[in-house]
């Protein structure tokens, strides 16, 4: 089972190292981990995609909750939530292919952010499925390199926080 | 903890080192165990100014100092401190912090660090100790600004003792110690996510009552949480009210009186046969302040296979971690038991109190107790280690001193025999490295305990392997005049490993012999070592000398080493082999072939 956990943590040096170290030493399977600033400068948000059964997820939540600098942890996959990945992908593109690719970029509501005679850099954001689909579409043209963020997510509506684990 | 701040604290610029030391005094610290070095010198200079309020004890190794803090804290429940310099001084704290994390001991370690300007440049004696210690501490600080010292110390003391207790490390660079600022003595803490207080609800307590009402064969499985939450009175009241018997983990010993009718002694790998049979047969296990450690459970799937489980623990992550609990209550144990006891006073629960509910169950337990007592085959031609411990306890009883005795141990066979054969009736009188199992724990922790309890008798029951690991602290005992006693059960082997070799590896010795050769004298010559340290000692090998030697040790004024030569063929029994069940329990001694050396 795949869960998206969102943790608000104190924005201090070493918090990421501690949390990734704890997850590794306890053998939890993390698919992705994204960290970034929040609306409050002293706080950062970490979003985890965790694979495991309910008891494993419960342990991850509780172990995260025990870290002193973690302010709260929420399993947002049990809520109505929005999740996004961001990807930058550089593909080979001849002048003839450019139009064709641009069409797909439009259909995916992606954007071309860099262009040369024989390459394009495209920015795509969306759910994991959408990103994966776009990668598959680009494969025949030749993917030079790509870079993806981890998952970020927020609960829809006015709900902002869950109980501290 | 002490309410800070005390009146009339200086409002003039002070060095970071002076501020830190003043903070410790404000928190009520009266002793610290500190080994100096380049990066902690300013702190030591500050300590020299407050010697009348804060005693600094100089260990002979940082690990020794750390375990002294363990001894102090484990016997008092009060936070105590150890301090070391940067680099190697700090890394010598890794083991004592890991030990404190495993056993939930609230100590604070302070380490000097190289100056902030050179951090990260591989400076002399630089180690990123906070990075190293993150997973083995409850929390950690690297102080970058002198202004933060008062807040960090306040938070550290708060974090150490609240919730599930645990160790804190504070790393403080030398320039931060030297810089002068006007301190804010009562800064706000910045712990927005930390939950200090955990208490169950009446509804949860009612569910426990409901479970008890359904049970015919209930058993309490009590652990270190009894000691940490000061719940021994509450658990005694609960057990006596309901008539439910109590089995204890190694850290639960002393939390419930060992001579009580309801006490089934220790359970687990080297627990009594009857406590293990009881937990296997129970239809309700009340797991109070325990973490279902593998040394207790053996094979997890088979442990409490049929019984229902009520689990109370202050750490939510322990609930349902190893074993699913039918009723899981996240609470300080004492508060929860007081809540349950209150419900038991209610008239509608009168059926649960007053006894008579578990006649059949207790009859069964008594039968097990009768047929499977703790036992060993005594010998007249040697001093058996079990005998030494049991006999010393009898002598202490005869001298009317047993209630004022604190026991510490190293790790291994002697530790388990001490747990089995020394009668612990009160909390905080049994001090041992249970979770991490650190050899060398016994002597320094005894010194720390004795410093905290000058009026009590503190005896380190040790093995020759463990004792040698921190033997340098004899110097500390001598110079600081800390009269600890050491009952050294010297079998010239790493006995516990030897036992496993005997049982599982055909007695093939894999570097477990510590002597210099079977035809030569026992090694090392502990008497001469003790003499070199200025510590009185006696070596005995004959059983008839034992009583007099113990009395001589107990009558001596200073530290005393009683080196007792014991055979190495004894096994700690009973024994449930690792990962097995009570059905596989080993009760009988085995004869080791003489050739197997």
Describe this structure in words.
The complex is a heterodimer of chains A (165) and B (597). With 165 residues, chain A is an alpha+beta fold. Chain A folds into two domains: 78 residues, Alpha-Beta Plaits (2-Layer Sandwich), CATH 3.30.70.260; 71 residues, Alpha-Beta Plaits (2-Layer Sandwich), CATH 3.30.70.1150. Helix content of chain A is 28%, strand content 41%. Chain A contains four helices and nine strands. In chain A, the strands form two sheets. In chain A, strands 5, 6, 7, 8 and 9 form a five-stranded antiparallel beta sheet that branches. The model of chain A has no long low-confidence stretch (mean pLDDT 91). Chain B is an alpha/beta fold. Chain B folds into three domains: 168 residues, Rossmann fold, CATH 3.40.50; 170 residues, TPP-binding domain (Rossmann fold, 3-Layer(aba) Sandwich); 189 residues, Thiamin diphosphate (ThDP)-binding fold, Pyr/PP domains (Rossmann fold), CATH 3.40.50. Chain B has 23 helices and 20 strands. In chain B, the strands form four sheets. Chain B has a six-stranded parallel beta sheet. The longest helix of chain B is centred in the N-terminal third of the chain and has 15 residues. Chain B is globular. Chain B starts with 13 loop residues before the first strand and ends in a 32-residue tail after the last strand. The interface between A and B is medium-sized, with 23 and 21 residues.
Provide the descriptors you would attach to this structure in a database record.
heterodimer; A: 165 residues; alpha+beta; Alpha-Beta Plaits; 2 domains; 4-stranded antiparallel sheet; 9 strands; 41% strand; elongated; B: 597 residues; alpha/beta; Rossmann fold; 3 domains; 6-stranded parallel sheet; 23 helices; 20 strands; 15% strand
H/E element sequence of chain A? EHEEHEEHEEHEE
- Unreliable parts of chain B: none
Quickly name the level 1 CATH class of the largest domain in chain B. Alpha Beta
Give the termini distance of chain B in whole angstroms. Answer: 54 Å
The tally of structural domains of chain A comes to: 2
- As for the number of domains of chain B, it is 3
Shape of chain A: elongated
The CATH homology group name of the largest domain in chain B: Thiamin diphosphate (ThDP)-binding fold, Pyr/PP domains
Largest beta-sheet details of chain B: 6 strands, parallel
Mean pLDDT over the full residue set of chain A: 91
How are the strands ordered across the major sheet of chain B?
3-2-4-5-7-6
Mean pLDDT of chain B: 96
Shape field of chain B: globular
Main sheet attributes: strand count, strand direction, barrel closure of chain A: 5 strands, antiparallel
List low-pLDDT spans of chain A.
Answer: none
């Amino acid at each position: 089972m795949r869960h998206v956990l969102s943790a608000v943590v104190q924005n201090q040096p070493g918090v990421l190292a501690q949390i990734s170290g704890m997850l590794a030493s306890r053998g939890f399977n993390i698919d992705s981990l994204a960290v970034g600033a929040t609306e409050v400068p002293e706080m950062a948000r970490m979003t985890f995609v965790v694979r495991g059964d309910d008891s494993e997820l419960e342990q991850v939540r509780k172990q995260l909750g025990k870290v002193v600098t973690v302010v709260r942890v929420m399993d947002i996959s049990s809520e109505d939530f929005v999740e996004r990945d961001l990807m930058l992908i550089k593909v080979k593109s001849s002048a003839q292919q450019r139009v064709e690719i641009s069409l797909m970029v439009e259909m995916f509501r992606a954007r071309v952010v860099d262009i040369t005679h024989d390459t394009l850099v495209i920015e795509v954001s969306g759910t994991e499925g959408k990103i994966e689909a776009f990668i598959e579409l680009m494969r025949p043209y030749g993917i030079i390199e790509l870079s993806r963020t981890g998952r970020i997510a927020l609960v829809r509506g006015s709900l902002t926080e869950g109980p501290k684990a | 903890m002490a309410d800070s701040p005390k009146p009339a604290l200086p409002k003039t610029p002070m060095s970071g080192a002076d501020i830190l030391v003043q903070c410790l005094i404000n928190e009520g610290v009266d002793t610290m165990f500190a080994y100096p070095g380049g990066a902690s010198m300013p702190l030591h200079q500050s300590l020299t100014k407050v010697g009348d309020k804060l005693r600094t004890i100089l260990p002979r190794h940082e690990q020794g100092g750390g375990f002294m803090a363990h001894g102090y804290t484990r016997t008092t429940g009060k936070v105590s401190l150890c301090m070391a310099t940067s680099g190697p001084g700090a890394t010598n704290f890794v083991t004592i912090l890991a030990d404190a994390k495993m056993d939930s001991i609230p100590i604070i370690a302070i380490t000097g660090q190289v100056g902030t300007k050179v951090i990260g440049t591989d400076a002399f004696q630089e180690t990123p100790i906070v990075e190293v210690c993150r997973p083995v501490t409850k929390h950690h600080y690297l102080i970058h600004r002198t202004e933060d010292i008062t807040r960090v110390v306040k938070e550290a003391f708060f974090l150490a003792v609240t919730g599930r207790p645990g160790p804190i490390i504070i790393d403080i660079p030398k320039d931060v110690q030297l810089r002068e600022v006007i301190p804010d003595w009562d800064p706000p803490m910045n712990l927005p996510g930390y939950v200090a207080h955990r208490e169950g609800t009446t509804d949860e307590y009612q569910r426990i009552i409901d479970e008890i009402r359904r049970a015919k064969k209930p058993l309490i499985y009590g652990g270190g949480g009894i000691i940490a939450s000061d719940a021994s009175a509450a658990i005694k009241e609960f057990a006596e009210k309901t008539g439910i018997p109590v089995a204890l983990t190694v850290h639960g010993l002393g939390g419930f009186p060992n001579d009580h009718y309801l006490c089934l002694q220790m359970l687990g790998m080297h627990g009594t046969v009857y406590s293990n049979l009881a937990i296997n047969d129970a239809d309700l296990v009340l797991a109070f302040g325990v973490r279902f450690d593998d040394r207790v459970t053996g094979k997890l799937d088979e442990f409490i296979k049929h019984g229902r489980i009520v689990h109370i623990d202050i750490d939510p992550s322990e609930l349902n971690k190893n074993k699913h609990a039918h009723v899981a209550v996240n609470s300080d144990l004492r508060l929860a038991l007081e809540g349950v006891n209150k419900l038991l006073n209610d008239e509608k629960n009168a059926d649960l109190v007053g006894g008579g509910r578990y006649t059949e169950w207790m009859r069964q337990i008594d039968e097990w107790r009768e047929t499977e007592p703790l036992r060993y085959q005594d010998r007249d031609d040697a001093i058996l280690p079990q005998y030494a411990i049991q006999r010393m306890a009898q002598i202490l009883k005869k001298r009317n001193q047993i209630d004022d005795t604190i026991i510490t141990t190293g790790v291994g066979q002697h530790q388990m025999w001490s747990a089995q054969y020394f009668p612990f009736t009160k909390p905080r009188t049994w001090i041992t490295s249970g979770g991490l199992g650190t050899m060398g724990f016994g002597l320094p922790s005894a010194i720390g305990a004795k410093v905290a309890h000058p009026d009590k008798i503190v005896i380190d029951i040790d093995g020759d392997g463990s004792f040698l690991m921190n033997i340098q602290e004899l110097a500390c005992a001598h110079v600081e005049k800390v009269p600890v006693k050491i009952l050294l059960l010297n079998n010239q082997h790493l006995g516990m490993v030897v036992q496993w070799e005997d049982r599982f590896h055909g007695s093939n010795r894999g570097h477990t012999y510590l002597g210099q050769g079977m035809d030569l004298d026992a090694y090392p010559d502990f008497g001469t070592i003790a003499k070199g340290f200025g510590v009185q000692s006696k070596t005995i090998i004959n059983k008839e000398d034992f009583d007099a030697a113990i009395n001589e040790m107990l009558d001596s004024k200073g530290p005393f080493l009683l080196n007792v030569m014991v055979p190495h063929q004894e096994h700690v029994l009973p024994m449930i082999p690792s990962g097995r069940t009570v059905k596989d329990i080993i009760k009988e001694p085995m004869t080791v072939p003489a050739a197997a050396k």
